[in-house]
# Entry
Amino acid sequence: MAGKAGASSLIQEARRLGIVGATAVRGATGYGKNNEERVMLLGIIALSSDLPIVLTFIDRRGKIDQLFPIVQQAVQGGIVLRDQVEVVVHT
# Structure
């Protein structure tokens, strides 16, 4: 995924599909498969595209199923997790 621009595009696509909720969070520290030798820190290069981004989409399974192929295509060199959760509070 192309960093912040890719995250924004996915969130816009989720909105277009009517997904109930979407959030993008840029990590302050992280490392991954392609940069195991170094830990990246949010600091001098605060807008580095190397820092991790976590996207969360929330909706019923059928709606997420519509978005899933688009996410898979967009993520190149990352991890896609899919999990069912139990909502305990919704106000």
